[in-house]
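User: We ran a pulldown and think these components assemble together. Before we commit to crystallization trials, I'd like a predicted model of the whole complex to look at. Sequences follow.
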Amino acid sequence: MIRKSGWLVFIVFFAALLALVYLLAGPAIRVGMVYSLEKAVGAEVNINKVSLELAPLALRINDLQITDAAKPSHNSISFGHARAALEVWPALLGYYVIDELTVDGLQYGAQRSSIGDVYREPSQDGEKVDIAALLQVDLPDADELIARANLQTPAKAEALKQLALVEQQKLKTLQDKLPTKDVIAQYQADIKALTDSKITDAADLAKKVEQLSQLKDKLKTEQATLVEAKQLLTHSQSALANAVTELKDASKADYAKVQQLANLSDGGLAGISQILLGDLWAQRITQLQSLYVLAKPYLPEQGAASDTADAAPEAVLPNRVLPLPNPPYPNFWVRRANVNWLIGGGEATITLQDITAQHALIDRATQFTVDVKQLPQLSALNINGDFAIMDKMITNLNWTLEGLTLQATQFGKDDTALDLAAGMITSNGKLKLTDNQINQQASVVLNGGNFSSSGNKYLQQLASLLNKQQQIPLNIATTGLISQPDVSIRSSLDKVLGDALLGEAKQKIAAYQSELQAKLNTQLQSGLAGQQDWAALLTQQDGEVADISDNIENMLNAKLADVKDQAKDKLKDKLFNKLGGGE
Amino acid sequence: MLTMLAKILKVLNSQVSPWQIGWAIALGLFVGILPFGLLTLLLVLLVCLLTVNLSTFIVTWGLTEGLMLLFAEPLEQLTWQYAQNDTLLRFLANNETAQLLHLHHTLTLGAFILGVVLAFPIAWCSKMLVLQYRSRIMSNVEKWKVTQMLKASKLFSLYEKLN
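Assistant: Here's a predicted model for the assembly, 746 residues in total across the polymer chains.
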């Protein structure tokens, strides 16, 4: 049963295995990396060498270059060498704990020595973020500014119009059921005919009473229809009154907003920076949504009831780690990482600590700092912050940017084009992201801006005004959901800028305002006038039917009394005849 | 392929105990379905120490590794589904040995359980099949032209010499 040479066979097998791993692991990993990266990026990937160090266990990658599929003469990313030191015991337990990760000579967009092969054309929908694009603003014309002011009145006026139409339709349908004047006259004629006719005997009396009752029932039905119509009218009047109130309120609010925008009373214009840059900043902020989407699968299942499908992470590798209650290590954890990034003729140092998605296990947040100094176009940039996924995803970020030289750029196009020949930006700010809620404050100052415009006279005036300013400050605050951020941008130059830029828009807004008032009045009159006529008509009809109904009652009673008298007289005559009084 | 066939025929036609072949198949299958790790090494040690047939073990291991290209994903998903059990997860969390054997990894756990459950039945079935083969089919197979060709081939003689 026991093989005597078993241990020997095993030792030989194990030794051969170790030797194979040591000798072939590097090349095997290199081939695997090249294959997977090329598959992912669709372009040539070069790795000079991958080697495995046994003590301490570490992987070293030398000279990695990933061809930019859109520009094969350049790399998208490349680095000189990277080293990841793996901790042995956690690795034996199946956790990837990297003690230290260093990447030196990281470059973005460096030129290749030879043109790289492209296996798959890059898709066009990928968005590249560059500073020029970040600063690109389309200056709106006057009509667009009015549109951006998001006035509520037109919508409310349209709603009122629709409501009036619907209500009128309902009333029209009911009108067809209401008794016409001819019908009422017919009722009166019928009753008169019945009451004026002679009653011959008791059977005739009973018949006529029956006919009168039927008429009365019909009249009751007509009256019920009238009551229903009146109720509907009351309801309709109340709905329309509400709509009118809303319209009036919206008009009032719009008027206030337009006044604020146009700042007609002061002769200036507030909030121009908000109108110009608000949407742009909101778009940039919504890009942070992707960070939240990435972190969401790792968040505790607070929204499990609504989002159970997301509970299990997708199987990327065919061997997932089970969600143990208190695992000794995170599944993936880089204790320290240093990245040396060659950027724009200088270098940036990125330092990260505790990179993981399971911060609760290590009870620490991921810390990061980015230090950029003395680039040709940037004096200094410092970003620091932390990121943690605990009960919630919390990200804090602070930045200081000094002396970012702007290259010649153009805002807007055609006759709203504004050229910036030179300028320097300084900024600082902070940002806090809690799950998908953002709270951000920033200050941006443009120094020594040199603007010019060949567009309309307002823009020329604006360029001239801007050039007179030594500094153009902007205060940007963002709150709310990342997907729908509430952005507030203010500048002390708002009034000056507004006067110039919105000179044309101001006139349009004023014209729009008076047009709005006129339209509103017309709509109110057309919407409500019909209603009042209707109410009068219904009240009149209701009165008429009630009168007829009362008349029937009276006539019926009178007729009955008359019939009774006739019957009494007949009885008396009969008795008198029988007693022989007549002979 | 020919070498593999020759190996199998040689073992089946030899005097190797049916149990040795049966356990070689069962353990080869067990090692084959497991992702490579400490458990694999322990099983290989077991195979080395016991007198199971090494050729059959290696052939079965290789074949099963190939089959796992198809079956690894369903097995992994099945394990993920059924392993969400508090007691099991607590046991795995508190047991470092289990983690050292990577039993907290879905595929490893699923393969381990499947291997343990199937080991004996497969060993027994394989033993029975070997017995049946030897008593009923072996003499006929010896007469097949393919077998004779294989036996006559240089590769086979080389293989025999090496063994």
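The two ends of chain A are 153 Å apart (CA to CA). That may be worth checking against your pulldown data before setting up trials.

User: Thanks, that helps.
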